[in-house]
Fold this sequence. Notes:
This protein is an alpha/beta fold. The protein is built from ten helices and nine strands. 43% of the residues lie in helices and 18% in strands. Strands 2-3-1-4-5 form a five-stranded parallel beta sheet, with helices on both faces. It has a four-stranded parallel beta sheet with strand order 7-8-6-9, with helices on one face.
Amino acid sequence: MRFVIVTGLSGAGKTEATRSLEDLGYFCVDNLPPKLISKFAEACQQSDGKIDKIALVMDIRGGIFFDDLFETLHSLKENELKYEILFLEASDDVLVKRFKESRRSHPLAPDGRVINGIEEERKKLREIKDRADNIIDTSKYAIRDLREKLNLLYGSGTTTERPLSITVVSFGFKYGIPMDSDLVFDVRFLPNPFYIPELKPFSGNDEPVKNYVLEKVETKDFMLKIEDMLKFLIPNYAKEGKRQLIVSIGCTGGRHRSVAIANAICETLNSDGFKASIEHRDVNEDVNRGAKKL
């Protein structure tokens, strides 16, 4: 079991570090009182290997409880439970700037100057910093830099531990654009099977509509362009630390064109080695509303 204690200066990036460790498969707990560490570790050891990576965030927010940390660490060592300490820090000017931007007060100077709280915190954390296995200065780190550093230390060492998850969503504009969309493509420029009597009852999941939509010259040109765009965008999104991408494809009602196109895009992404899933939000919306009226 890999056991990491995350600590450091307020504003140095512990929250983002926790998110990164969660993405690496760690079971993370924030601000657990030190006296509970031993019992928590024992419970994890009894999970039959289901919990084999743990990260506990501890800092001066724990108040008087934080003073118990060294006693707890000594107890862990006596019980031969191996642990690692990750300490995050940053320069005074960077920390002051971060507190100003977030408009937060420092935990040790709630009514005073931030710099005074930072100085006091450095003193309180000096001993734990001296014991740290890894110290990361985040002063010049972007989020992606911190993710990559943590992956090297606590993950597999590859730049992206968890692949970017892509969901391709078909929808109808008359029902609104999906709120969580990252990319939205409008395919209402394509000929509409809705106006062809023998195709109207089917959806883009059915062969007649699928063939009608995908065999159009306009569709083939569109597919080439969108595939090229996504091949460029997806690796760059992943590089920036994005973990989920919602690609929304819309037509008028979300039943014919958008469904056929979304299916084709999802298949293309998976064949290109990406991790993509499909969702048809409005494919049965007109049918369901018609049934309700009846």
